[in-house]
């Protein structure tokens, strides 16, 4: 196996290569941007229609009160966990192969959260009253219900979003200084000058930077775990059969990391292709990433089975019925598709020949995410269709075009944010790649080159 | 919002409910429904439409599960493969059970649904943001969401049908959750009258709309705290206790059984509605 | 209760509340704008009217003919809700859903608001003066025998005025028509007991065997029977009463029975006779001639003919023998055949043999004012009117309270025949199917804004006269009460006699007050009597019980054997009367449309009920659109499959399938009246409603049935939602 | 006595380290070793070592922030619940501890992160004015040593820098 | 903060000292913020509970409250509020008197019989038309405010003067002509009073606060 990165790559070259990605976009960029905006338009149109007419147009009903919005909300929250994984966990582990790819993963975290947040709003029956959820002092002495997992969500997501944005930003300051130093005019210059806060790479800055980055990374890990556990609590804290499962929090966290990693693979391939980042986003890194994904997929599979097993061996007939319903009822095709995409398909990743086969990986990673999206939907829809109360069981719940439209548009929204980010900010961390190169070359100097794989 | 308040009353704030230490003092509204008397005639449901300004949603919306019957009559068959339903059906009026430990209350993000001192599960329409979590967490699925803005929907209350609307009950707009209130507008009036007279509400002084209309008198409603109330006596005779999830009577093996039970009691929601089992003659 | 100086009529006129108080804003973030809304204020008011507190006025429900007392809650001049009048012995403060929907009949947006005269295809609004003048002109131009009045069941002062008007015209014909009425039972009762409508004491019975009488749902006086049923089920009577329902299509009552016996259609009489035989064999004393007649009805044969197992017949006979008194009721399902009278007679015979007459079958009271006694309707009346119309014997036709164009079978060709009548006047609330055929449509006040009295056919105790009084001012100035119209018409004919009465109210008041002695107000002055009458809403009349003959006799009783197979039309059609829609006149009240049918939980539509076996044989599943074709026509509706129906039977509910009436009824469901065959009961000549044979075929489409029950289909999945136990395990007398 | 700045750029990190070591050892008059600033394109703990032991205080901010966030959250949430007209929900105590702990946990983190960032900005002296001498090269691939000293020390600086193969030496203009 | 960036001695004592400083600092800070917040929330007069004069409402007849209810010294007749707003003690609304009540007095007061307002009043009476008074104190439709309970509590149980009891929410109506809203009638304003302890009757020292469950006022 080759090296993660060439040690002899010139630092100036790194700057040049990465800064090149900020240059004026090609025509295709504008086309895709336009498509993304059009997708957002669909969502906005659907939302306006839903807002004016009432939630009924989403084709949910009284026994089936949640739908795609919540499923997609969890999906996006899940996606956001990859950035934390790569930047925080691997940072603490000193896995320096994360360095070329963590920046866009972190951006993905932030933008997924920003997308997820919208779904909470879209989901509300009275969007215009959303501020009631926030704990602001008011003369009525009325507060939100701090017992509600939805309020925990609000707290957790607010914390996560602000922490991730800060983390992304702080980690980017040295790169912003590079941009400032290399771009000499226009709004970009002003932007980078302001945003780089006068960073000059002094020893004092670096010293504090190092400890700050590490500290926030330490905070982010429990935070990320808590965020998705709390999202899992939305379900696990309720008494719905199929939701009230002890293993839900770790299951959700695993699912989140899983979908996040899959999404990183997808974006990795896209960025590598678009920005010609072959030097940085190398196949050996991809290989590590794929192996990580595979491991997480197996963790997820395991937790999934644990969930089924604990239901199956438990005495709760209601939950058991619910599980059987999932596997055999009208949702069975989706359920089995989820099992296939989530547990069977990743087995491919165990084979070396696929680990660096980018076209196949591209498709597989997207399918994995389809599977993970189905997982979320399989938590929502069948549980509502087959709850505690047989009289209100329901099969007739196919989301309306309004719901699909908004879900569809959310991908456009994410794409838009991500594409703008890629053109405004360096999507590869230049200073960290330099560090990586530096440390690798130091290692080479001091030790004899090791043959074979790392 | 003082910390002294928090510290001074800490032990008070930490008490669970319902518990023997924190019983209802004046009122605990409860219901009992005799399934042997219920004939499934639906009069209660229509009365509820009349009393509580429930919208008639029409066929298409009903088909989508957007109906609003705060009290609905469920009809169950013996599904044991017999040729005819020769023991008839089992009818069950299902309404909000006003659980003492209501699963809906804890999950509402804005605290729109709370427990009142009278043991009612209150729903404040104006506070509701429509997250629908309460419905998701309601094991009885007795909550109904305003999927559309019925006051402005065609043929829901066309002029002059809107003149029938009860001014004592809010007309709900789109996006809020609603449910049976035990006709709280009647309870409030009765309590106010009783207070002016310097006494508590007497048994039978206040009736819910469904109880009032029921031709067979299958529904009893009253104050569990009141020792003279019929409903309290019924609960007592049936040995159903509010804050028990396993009734003592069920453990005993006796020749004579008691009929009282509460639905899905094992979920520890402590419903305020007791049902009395339906009976069937064995000699025929 | 009501001040003398401020009588009820004054209340309605002077009240005049200012400003709109109907607020439809609700719970949105309503902007509170001072000075935009009006305060409720009155010109003059009474002490009992307190803003924001409801005042209750008693009246009588007009939603069906049972005559329950109602109590309307009135606030700020609007009637908001109806409750039962506790003073009425019929319903004792209780009500049914149909009655509750009375406010929707009143506030219905589709009510006719002014008199309409036919002008080509359209109705042209005219004044009442012109309308009444036109009637005067038309009735003056024809012979009295060519004038026909078609009404539903009428009673009270309106009936008396109607009779006076007919007399004044020189005796026109009065046809009293009810689309679904227990008229065969009335005849059979008359024969067996000497009275048409004996009082059934369900509460006293220990066993009730009902042959298709849906007394909890739609039969005669359901609210009253439901109350009695509740007592029958309790231990008041010593032990919990046992209800056995024998019918081919499950009714609401059948769904509440301890044992529901699916019987082959039309063989109810056989089962009754078989039971007498089994009881005789078990040692019950049975008169000789009866014993001789029933001797051939051995349990085996009866079981073979009826499809009821010998085991059940035996147990039923034993139960009837053991627990006395019992009550046997013949309902519409037993009588709807060409041999319906024989069935009913056989069932009455069972009652007599069991010695129930005088115990659970009681004599009613005589009615002190026979001119106000209810005129009960039947389908024969429509038949004879139709014959007369077909023979051009009717020149002027008045229709009131019925919708014959909707309820007549297509085979009768009533709609076509009506074209022969030169002048048709319809008194109506809605533009229903009959009103569409009319030349002159006269809009009536709703029951909640009209004065009337009513005397129900079935009274629980003694005799009573129900008062119907306005609960609020008229919604539309262009409507008029039936009493007022009749009074105006009478003034045309007999001005001297009636000129003293300004309107129907003054007529009614003076008629009542002048008879106050007989109405129980002897000792009071006129105003006190009148106010008390209005505040009670009912007047209890002293009636004496009439005599009943009770000796069982089987003279002339021949019950035919079961139906022969008919391969072309293999199924019996049972047009089911639903508790809420009845004969269809209430179909435009949305609460009733949205109130799920108790057994199928279907809303807003019609359906075809069939047994799973039948469905399997025909390859039909739930939701298939099927065509139900009789010799007289065909209808298409969705299929609903359940086990509460005999496999030989197909059932379609009545009441829907309107082509007019209003926004909530039009185009909903199908009209099963239309495909009924012209088969008549041999003795009474009534249309045999259940005699129609049909064939069923798939029409190809499939729909999702709109119903309240979910895909679990009434299965509890072992969740212990509705629990049931055997009655011998419970000590009911220990309960509160 | 006016002081002037001098910036030297190196591309060999070892030489830069050596230069710093020599500066430390040389005891140049009018120059305090604390007035020397190292500028580098990457995080470079090994090189910083030669600057001597400099304390980092961001973690104290973290401690304060996290404690404050957690405590504030707990007290605010609990007193809000206690003052929300004592509305009972779902049979739980009015101040239920498990949910409050969840929120305390979240706010603990939020407080920690926020105050850490604040601490970072304070400790790292950001946002900062540009120092008098700067080269874009230090954000690319060269290491810069910025020294401040008396006029007299400048020559000594230059000597050391040149000795250690400084690529470029910038001198602050005379004031 | 400058001391932080200064190099400090690397001895253990110094570290401990710093830690101690920080801990004290942080506890102080938390205490400060909590108490400041606590004080701010309880002391601040929130916007919607502050006095808030409603708009002038055009009424069909400019009813002079000052003339009817005002102090005798100022030429008023000191009529009890509940003489006209008679429903206040037995209904949830205080109500507007029926026209017959106005006429009941005014038909005997010849002195003002020909004034324009009284003439207007008689016009309504003769036409048997109710006067279309407009609402001055309007609550949202989801609120149930019960006059009866407040009157029973403050006027009858606690023996407060009627004008004071009514005036608490309606302002000093006896000085107005056409009544105008004086208080915000917002939820916060209601709650601010319900939270206070009021004596249960005129003599007792026992106090209670207003009810606090949502359904008491929300419907």
Descriptive account of the structure:
The complex is a heteropentamer of chains A (about 450), B (about 280), C (about 725), D (about 180) and E (about 220). Chain A has about 450 residues and is mainly alpha-helical. Chain A has one domain: Formate dehydrogenase/DMSO reductase domain (Formate dehydrogenase/DMSO reductase fold), CATH 1.20.1630. Chain A is built from 16 helices and no strands. In chain A, α3 crosses α14, α8 packs across α9 and α9 runs antiparallel to α14. The longest helix of chain A has about 35 residues. Chain A is globular. The termini of chain A are close together. The termini of chain B are far apart. By secondary structure, chain B is α+β, with helices and mostly antiparallel strands. Chain D is α+β, with helices and mostly antiparallel strands. Helix content of chain D is about 50%, strand content about 15%. The longest helix of chain D is centred in the middle third of the chain and has 27 residues. In chain E, α5 packs across α6. Chain E has two domains: about 120 residues, no CATH class; about 35 residues, no CATH class. At the D-E interface, α3 of D face α2 of E. β11 of chain B pairs parallel with β26 of chain C.
The main β sheet of chain D shows up as: 4 strands, antiparallel
Largest sheet of chain B: 4 strands, mixed
Write down the CATH topology of chain B.
Alpha-Beta Plaits
Helix content of chain D: 40-55%
What's the assembly state of these chains?
A: heteropentamer
CATH topology of the largest domain in chain D: Alpha-Beta Plaits
Global geometry of chain D:
rod-shaped
Strand order of the largest sheet of chain B: 8-1-10-9
What gap, in angstroms, lies between the N and C termini of chain D? 11 Å
Sum up the structure in keywords.
heteropentamer, C: 736 residues, alpha/beta, N-terminal domain of TfIIb, Rossmann fold, Dimethylsulfoxide Reductase, domain 2, 4 domains, 7-stranded mixed β-sheet, 6-stranded mixed β-sheet, 24 helices, globular, E: 219 residues, mainly alpha, two-stranded antiparallel ribbon, 10 helices, 2 strands, disordered N terminus
In short:
The complex is a heteropentamer of chains A (454), B (284), C (736), D (175) and E (219). Chain B is α+β, with helices and mostly antiparallel strands.
List the helices and strands and how they pair.
The complex is a heteropentamer of chains A (454), B (284), C (736), D (175) and E (219).
Chain B: H1 3-8, H2 10-13, E1 29-34, H3 43-51, H4 59-63, E2 72-76, E3 90-94, H5 103-107, E4 113-115, E5 121-123, H6 133-137, E6 143-145, E7 177-179, H7 184-196, H8 209-213, E8 219-223, H9 230-237, H10 248-251, E9 260-261, E10 273-276, E11 278-280
Parallel strand pairs in B: 1-10
Antiparallel strand pairs in B: 1-8, 2-3, 4-5, 6-7, 9-10
Chain C: H1 8-14, E1 55-60, E2 69-75, E3 78-84, H2 97-100, H3 102-106, E4 116-119, E5 122-125, H4 128-140, E6 147-151, H5 156-169, E7 173-176, H6 183-193, E8 199-200, E9 207-211, H7 222-233, E10 242-247, H8 252-255, E11 259-262, H9 268-281, H10 288-294, H11 299-306, H12 310-322, E12 326-330, H13 332-335, H14 340-353, E13 361-362, H15 379-390, E14 396-400, H16 404-407, H17 414-418, E15 423-428, H18 433-437, E16 440-443, E17 452-454, E18 463-468, H19 482-493, H20 495-498, H21 504-514, H22 526-536, E19 538-541, E20 571-576, H23 590-594, E21 607-610, H24 612-618, E22 624-630, E23 633-641, E24 649-653, E25 693-702, E26 724-726
Parallel strand pairs in C: 6-7, 6-14, 9-10, 9-12, 10-11, 14-15, 15-16, 20-24, 21-23
Antiparallel strand pairs in C: 1-2, 2-3, 4-5, 4-16, 8-13, 17-18, 18-19, 20-25, 22-23, 22-25
Chain E: H1 2-5, H2 12-43, H3 65-69, H4 81-84, H5 99-106, H6 116-127, H7 147-157, H8 162-170, H9 187-194, E1 198-199, E2 207-208, H10 214-217
Antiparallel strand pairs in E: 1-2
Helix pairs in contact in E: 5-6
């Amino acid at each position: 196996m080759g090296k993660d990165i060439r040690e002899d790559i010139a630092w100036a070259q790194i700057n040049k290569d990465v800064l090149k990605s900020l240059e004026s976009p090609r025509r295709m960029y504008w086309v895709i941007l336009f498509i993304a905006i059009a997708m957002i338009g669909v969502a906005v149109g659907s939302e306006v229609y839903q807002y004016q007419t009432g939630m009924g147009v989403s084709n949910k009903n009284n026994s089936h009160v949640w739908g795609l919005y919540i499923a997609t909300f969890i999906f996006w929250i899940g996606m956001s966990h990859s950035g934390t994984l790569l930047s925080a966990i691997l940072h603490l582990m000193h896995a320096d192969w994360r360095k070329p790819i963590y920046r866009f993963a972190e951006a993905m975290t932030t933008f997924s959260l920003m997308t997820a947040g919208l779904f909470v709003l879209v989901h509300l029956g009275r969007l215009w009253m959303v501020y009631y959820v926030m704990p602001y002092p008011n003369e009525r002495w009325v507060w939100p219900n701090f017992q509600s997992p939805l309020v925990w969500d609000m707290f957790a997501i607010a914390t996560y979003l602000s922490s991730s944005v800060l983390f992304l930003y702080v980690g980017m300051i040295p790169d912003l200084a590079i941009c400032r130093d290399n771009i000499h005019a226009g709004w970009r210059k002003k932007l980078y000058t302001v945003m780089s806060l006068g960073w000059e790479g002094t020893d004092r800055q670096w010293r504090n930077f190092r400890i700050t980055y590490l500290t926030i990374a330490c905070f982010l890990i429990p935070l990320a775990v808590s965020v998705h556990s709390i999202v899992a609590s939305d379900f696990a804290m309720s008494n719905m059969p199929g939701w009230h499962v002890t293993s839900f929090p770790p299951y959700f966290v695993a699912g989140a990391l899983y979908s996040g990693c899959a999404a990183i693979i997808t974006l990795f391939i896209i960025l590598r292709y678009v920005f010609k980042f072959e030097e940085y986003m190398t196949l050996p890194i991809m290989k590590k990433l794929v192996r990580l994904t595979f491991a997480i997929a197996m963790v997820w599979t395991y937790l999934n089975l644990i969930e089924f097993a604990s239901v199956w061996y438990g005495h709760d007939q209601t939950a058991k019925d619910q599980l059987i319903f999932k596997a055999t009822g009208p949702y069975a095709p989706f359920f089995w598709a989820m099992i296939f995409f989530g547990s069977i398909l990743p087995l491919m990743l165990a084979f070396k020949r696929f680990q660096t086969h980018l076209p196949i990986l591209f498709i597989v990673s997207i399918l994995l995410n389809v599977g993970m999206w189905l997982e979320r939907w399989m938590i929502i829809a069948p549980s509502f269709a087959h709850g505690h109360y047989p009289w209100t069981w329901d099969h007739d719940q196919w989301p309306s075009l309004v719901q699909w439209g908004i879900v569809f548009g959310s991908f456009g929204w994410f794409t838009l944010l991500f594409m703008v980010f890629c053109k405004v900010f360096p999507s590869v961390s230049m200073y960290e790649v330099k560090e990586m190169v530096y440390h690798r070359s130091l290692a080479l100097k001091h030790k004899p080159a090791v043959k074979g794989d790392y | 919002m003082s910390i002294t308040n928090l510290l001074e009353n800490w032990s008070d704030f930490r008490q669970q409910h319902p518990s023997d230490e924190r019983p209802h003092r004046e009122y605990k509204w409860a219901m009992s429904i005799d399934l042997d008397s219920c004939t499934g005639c639906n009069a209660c449901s229509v009365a509820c439409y009349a009393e509580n300004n429930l919208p008639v949603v029409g066929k298409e919306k009903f088909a989508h599960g957007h109906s609003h019957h705060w009290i609905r009559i469920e009809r169950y068959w013996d599904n044991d493969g017999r040729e005819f339903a020769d023991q008839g059906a089992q009818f069950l009026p299902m309404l909000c059970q006003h659980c003492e430990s209501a699963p809906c209350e804890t999950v509402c993000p804005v605290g729109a649904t709370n427990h009142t001192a009278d043991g009612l599960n209150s729903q404040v329409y104006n506070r509701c943001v429509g997250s629908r979590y309460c419905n998701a967490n309601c094991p009885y699925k007795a909550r109904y969401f305003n999927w559309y803005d019925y006051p402005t929907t065609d043929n829901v209350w066309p002029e002059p049908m809107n003149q029938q609307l009860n001014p004592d009950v809010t007309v709900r707009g789109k996006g809020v959750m609603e449910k049976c209130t035990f006709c709280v507008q009647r309870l409030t009036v009765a309590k106010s009258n009783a207070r002016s007279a310097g006494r508590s509400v007497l048994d039978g002084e206040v009736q819910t709309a469904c109880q009032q209309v029921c031709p067979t008198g299958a529904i009893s409603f009253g104050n569990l705290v009141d020792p003279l109330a019929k409903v309290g006596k019924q609960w007592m005779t049936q040995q159903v206790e509010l804050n028990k999830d396993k009734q003592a009577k069920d453990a005993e093996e006796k020749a004579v059984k008691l009929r009282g039970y509460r639905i899905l009691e094992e979920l520890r929601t402590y419903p305020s509605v007791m049902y009395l089992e339906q009976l069937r003659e064995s000699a025929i | 209760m009501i001040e003398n100086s401020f009588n009820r009529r004054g209340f309605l006129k002077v009240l005049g509340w200012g400003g709109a108080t109907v607020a439809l804003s609700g719970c949105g973030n309503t902007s509170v704008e001072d000075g935009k809304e009006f305060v409720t204020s009155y010109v003059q008011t009474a002490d009992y009217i307190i803003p924001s507190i409801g005042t209750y006025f008693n009246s009588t429900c007009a939603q069906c003919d049972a005559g329950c007392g109602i109590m309307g809650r009135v606030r700020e001049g609007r009637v908001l809700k109806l409750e039962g009048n506790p003073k009425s012995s019929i319903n004792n403060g209780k009500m049914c859903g149909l009655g509750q929907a009375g406010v929707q009949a009143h506030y219905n947006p589709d009510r006719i608001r002014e008199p309409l005269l036919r002008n080509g295809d359209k109705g042209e609004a005219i004044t009442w003066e012109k309308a009444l003048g036109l009637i005067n002109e038309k009735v003056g131009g024809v012979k009295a025998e060519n004038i026909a009045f078609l009404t539903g069941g009428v009673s009270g002062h309106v009936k008396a005025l109607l009779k006076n008007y007919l007399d004044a015209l020189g005796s026109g014909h009065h046809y009293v028509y009810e689309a679904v009425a227990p008229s065969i039972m009335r005849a059979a009762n008359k024969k067996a007991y000497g009275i048409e409508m004996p009082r059934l004491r369900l509460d006293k019975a220990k066993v009730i065997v009902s042959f298709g009488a849906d007394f909890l749902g739609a039969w005669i006086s359901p609210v009253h029977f439901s109350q009695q049923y509740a007592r029958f089920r309790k231990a008041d009577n010593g032990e919990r009463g046992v209800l056995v329902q024998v019918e081919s299509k499950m009714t609401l009552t059948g769904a509440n029975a301890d044992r529901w016996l699916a019987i082959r259609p039309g063989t109810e009489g056989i089962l009754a006779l078989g039971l007498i035989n089994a009881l005789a064999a078990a040692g019950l004393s049975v008169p000789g001639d009866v014993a001789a007649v029933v001797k051939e009805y051995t349990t085996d044969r009866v079981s073979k003919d009826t499809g009821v197992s010998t085991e059940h017949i035996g147990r039923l006979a034993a139960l009837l023998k053991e627990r006395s008194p019992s009550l046997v009721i013949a309902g519409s399902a037993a009588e709807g055949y060409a041999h319906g009278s024989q069935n009913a007679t056989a069932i009455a015979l069972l009652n007599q043999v069991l010695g129930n007459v005088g115990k659970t079958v009681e004599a009613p009271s005589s009615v002190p004012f026979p001119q106000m006694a209810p005129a009960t309707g039947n389908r024969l009346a429509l038949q004879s009117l139709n014959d007369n119309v077909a023979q051009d014997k009717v020149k002027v036709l008045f229709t009131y309270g019925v919708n014959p164009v909707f309820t007549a079978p297509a085979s009768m060709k009533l709609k076509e025949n009506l074209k022969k009548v030169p002048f048709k006047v319809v008194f109506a609330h809605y533009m229903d199917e009959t009103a569409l055929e009319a030349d002159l449509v006269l809009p009536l006040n709703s029951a909640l804004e009209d004065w009337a009295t009513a005397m129900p056919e079935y009274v629980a105790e003694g005799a009573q006269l129900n008062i119907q009084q306005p609960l609020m001012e008229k919604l539309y100035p262009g409507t008029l009460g039936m009493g007022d119209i009749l009074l105006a018409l009478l003034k045309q004919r007999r001005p001297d006699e009636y000129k003293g009465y300004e309107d129907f109210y003054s007529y009614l008041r003076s008629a009542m007050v002048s008879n106050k002695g007989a109405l129980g107000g002897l000792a009071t002055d006129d105003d006190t009597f009148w106010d008390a009458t209005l505040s009670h809403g009912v007047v209890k009349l002293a009636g004496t019980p009439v005599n009943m003959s009770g000796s069982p006799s089987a003279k002339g009783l021949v019950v035919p054997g079961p139906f022969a197979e008919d391969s072309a039309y293999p199924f019996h059609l049972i047009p089911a009367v639903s508790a809420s829609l009845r004969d269809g006149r209430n179909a435009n009240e949305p609460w009733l449309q949205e109130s799920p049918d108790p057994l199928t939980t279907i809303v807003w539509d019609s359906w075809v009920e069939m047994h799973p076996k039948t469905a399997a044989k025909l390859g039909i599943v739930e939701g298939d659109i099927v065509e139900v074709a009789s010799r007289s026509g065909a209808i298409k509706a969705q299929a609903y499959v359940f086990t509460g129906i005999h496999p030989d039977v197909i059932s379609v509910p009545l009441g829907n399938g309107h082509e007019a009436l209003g926004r909530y009824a039009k185009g909903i469901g199908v009209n099963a009246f239309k495909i009924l065959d012209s088969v008549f009961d041999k003795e009474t000549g009534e249309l045999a409603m259940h005699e129609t044979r049909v064939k069923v075929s798939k029409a190809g489409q499939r729909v999702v049935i709109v119903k309240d029950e979910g895909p679990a289909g009434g299965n509890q999945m072992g969740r212990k939602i509705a629990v049931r136990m055997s009655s011998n395990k419970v000590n009911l007398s220990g309960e509160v | 006595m006016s002081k002037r700045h001098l910036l030297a750029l190196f591309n060999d990190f070892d030489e830069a380290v050596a230069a710093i070591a020599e500066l430390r050892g040389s005891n140049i008059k009018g120059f305090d070793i604390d007035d020397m600033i190292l500028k580098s394109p990457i995080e470079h703990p090994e090189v910083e070592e030669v600057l001597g032991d400099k304390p980092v205080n961001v973690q104290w901010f973290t401690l304060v922030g996290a404690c404050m966030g957690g405590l504030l959250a707990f007290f605010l949430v609990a007193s809000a619940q206690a003052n929300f007209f004592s509305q009972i929900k779902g049979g739980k105590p009015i101040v239920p501890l498990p949910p409050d702990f969840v929120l305390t946990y979240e706010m603990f983190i939020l407080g920690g992160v926020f105050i850490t960032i604040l601490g970072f900005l304070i400790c790292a002296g950001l946002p900062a004015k540009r120092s008098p001498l700067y080269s874009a090269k230090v954000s690319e691939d060269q290491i810069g040593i910025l020294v401040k000293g008396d006029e007299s020390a400048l020559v000594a600086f230059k000597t050391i820098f040149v000795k250690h193969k400084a690529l470029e030496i910038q001198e602050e203009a005379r004031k | 903060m400058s001391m932080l960036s200064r190099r400090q001695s690397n001895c253990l004592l110094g570290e401990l000292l710093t830690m101690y400083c920080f801990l004290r600092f942080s506890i102080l800070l938390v205490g400060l913020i909590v108490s400041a917040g606590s004080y701010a929330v309880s002391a601040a007069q929130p916007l919607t509970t502050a006095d808030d004069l409603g708009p002038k409402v055009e009424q069909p007849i400019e009813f002079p409250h000052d003339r009817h209810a005002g102090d005798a010294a100022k030429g008023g007749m000191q009529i009890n509020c509940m003489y006209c707003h008679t429903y206040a003690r037995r209904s949830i609304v205080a109500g507007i008197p029926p026209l017959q009540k106005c006429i009941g007095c005014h038909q005997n007061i010849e002195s003002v019989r020909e004034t324009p307002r009284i003439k207007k009043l008689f016009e309504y009476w003769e036409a048997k038309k109710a006067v279309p008074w407009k609402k001055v104190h309007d609550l949202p439709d989801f609120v149930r405010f019960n006059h009866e309970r407040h009157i029973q509590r403050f006027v009858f149980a606690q023996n407060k003067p009627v004008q004071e009891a009514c005036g608490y929410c309606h302002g000093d109506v006896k000085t107005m002509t056409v009544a105008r809203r004086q208080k915000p009638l917002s939820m916060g304003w209601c709650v601010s009073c319900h939270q206070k302890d009021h004596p249960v009757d005129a003599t007792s020292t026992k106090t209670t606060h207003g009810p606090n469950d949502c359904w008491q006022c929300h419907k």
